Amino acid sequence: MNHRIRSGALVAGTLTLTLALSGCFASPGADAGTAGSGRVSLAMLQPPRSGLSPLSDDAFKLSRWSTAETLVVLDDAGDPLPALATDWEQTSKLTWRFSIREGVTFHDGSRLTAEAAANSLRAATGASPVPRILDGVDLRVEVDGGDVVLTTAAPDPLLPNRLSSPQLSILSEAAYASGTVNPVGTGTGPFKLTAVDGTSSATLERYDGYWGEPAAATGIDVDFVPDGTARAAALRTGTADIVEAVPAGQAASIDGNLINEVPMPRTNTLYLNTESGPFADPAVRAAAREAIDRAAIIASAYEGRADEAAGLLGPALPWTAGMRDGAGYREILAGRAEPARVDGVRISLGTFTDRAELPEVAVLVEQQLEEAGFVVEQDVREYQFIETDALEGAFDAFILSRATVLDSGDPVAYFAADFTCEGGFNISQLCQDTVDEAVAAASRTDAGDQRREAIMAAEAKILTTDAAIPLLHERVIQGEALNVTDAARDPRERLLVTGKTRVDAQR
């Protein structure tokens, strides 16, 4: 086996990807806090939880600010593109060789080398806990000349995709000097992180030594604003140029020209307990499936700002839609059980309060199930107090908002966790050989069209069991002042302010 990927005419893979994800609004509009200053004012949903360590979920902030970069980025279909690695080659079933881009400097002035890149990857493999993207992956990191050589204990066709995770960002050796990972002044992106004020704010400046096209904006001013009403007010009043995650309930009070809806790789799903209780019977699960009115749920709980689910994977993965029309997919789904007649069947239904819409979704689902003949008892708590019960099968049904592509940009890990016999997040308690075999086949397949076909076959196998009834695919509402140009609208939430983003002076 010898697969080689080359950068070809690609210059700055991150910039190429940004163009595919960006929108352009140059017309004048509502005042923005930094109009004409060359700086971008950003209001973000969540403050840092781990000191902006790239080995935590804070890594996605560093990526959204274009300050920390990875060896690889992903295109819209989830296939890998060059970034800090210019090309790569799979030299055996277990070994990959990545060539490191020349002429790149870190924000502290040191030079990107293969050893510097390897140092960041070794820090990730040795971290406790290990970054999610490497969970279960035994990775050995070596350097050979200008290349980083990676060896896995088992064949891993998804390794280049893994390296796109912001949790595997490449920082200078100085970032690791103190025992913790400090991203301030140690990235390679078009913006240099210069200051962090705890969980309150962060400041970035344009890095004039950037290896790609220099940033259009002179800097980024970040405020962490967990309160959704306050973020919406920042957009309405012009105190922020770009606002993350405007609550759906606030959107109606904002000029529609400032609102952009981005499909998310997140599905709200009704999980049914296949191991015990009424839903151990496939025909009773089928009755629940037939009872669901997705359009009514979206209209009420999401004010129309969501997409009906035709499957587990939604419009954030645009390649999925056409593949459901294939004869093979339809043939698999034809194996679903016929619905039973239900009269007075008692079930427990759980969900959690942490995502504001879910309690209302639960009320609507209860009403729809009761119209079909079920008797429903609800249990709604904070997620931290209900997760254990859900995973142990304490509920007959459970409503969950679930990320479907996780860190690699690939949904196989989600399928394996939620729907296989050994899955660690198997709320449905599903264990069927046909599903396990389909997920395993997808996992073994190389990235590209064949893997996507295998993924859709696995989705169809899962849906045939009615262990999970997909309800809707969420959208995130991103606010942008009308004088903002080229803010990224990224379903994976890896990009937001890029080198091309700018705030124009008002006219």
Describe this structure in words.
With 507 residues, this protein is of the alpha+beta class. It folds into two domains: 3-241 and 481-503, D-Maltodextrin-Binding Protein, domain 2 (3-Layer(aba) Sandwich); 263-475, Roll (Dipeptide-binding Protein, domain 3). It has 15 helices and 21 strands. A hairpin with a 4-residue loop joins strand 6 (85-90) and strand 7. This is ABC transporter substrate-binding protein. One of its GO terms (cellular component) is periplasmic space.
Report the major sheet: 11 strands, mixed
Amount of helix: 25-40%
Quaternary organisation of the protein chains: single chain
Show unreliable segments: 6-36
The CATH topology of the largest domain, please? Answer: D-Maltodextrin-Binding Protein, domain 2
Give the class-level CATH name of the largest domain. Answer: Alpha Beta
**Principal-axes shape call:** globular
User: What structural class should be given to the helix and strand makeup?
Assistant: alpha+beta
The Cα radius of gyration reads: 23 Å
Looking at CATH, the homologous superfamily of the largest domain is Periplasmic binding protein-like II
Determine the strand fraction and express it as a percent band. 15-25%
Task: Tell me the CATH architecture of the largest domain.
Answer: 3-Layer(aba) Sandwich
Pfam family, one: SBP_bac_5
Protein name: ABC transporter substrate-binding protein
Domain Solute-binding protein family: 80-424
Signal peptide: 1-32
